[in-house]
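Board notes (copied after class):
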Amino acid sequence: MTLPLPYAQEHKIIAQYGCKSNCGVISIPFPFGMEEPHCYAGMWFEIECKFDKKSSNIPKPYLKSLNLEVKHFNDYLGMIEIMNLVHCSKCKKRRSKNNKNNKHLTINLRDSPFIYSHDLNKFLAFGCNNFSSLQSNGTTVGGCASISPQF
């Protein structure tokens, strides 16, 4: 998304005074912050700057309370873009080390100030003969299937 130039010039991402404002190449705006408690607006907004074991030498911001990588902060829309978990079923090479069955991988947003966007999130199943469901508070609120024709 490209912001209009006047907005970009007048509304720069601002961290709290005396706080680090970047993690790698990503600017961290308040209410998010790192290291010192006065740098963020509460435990849900604490950012941990860490290196990904698999990839680059550039540190990446993680939302510490949920241990999710932050890809982008959009203070204009009041949103953050995160890297969500990918559930793999019957994938020999991609089994989770923490969950051998690789089922019910969840992110619990209950009691947090965060919600998923109804407009911008995508939920999908891919492969052959798969079904996935999305639950909120124990109630199925969405689902999708990928069906392979029988030849």
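Comment from the instructor: The chain is about 5% helix and 25% strand. Helices lie at 5-10.
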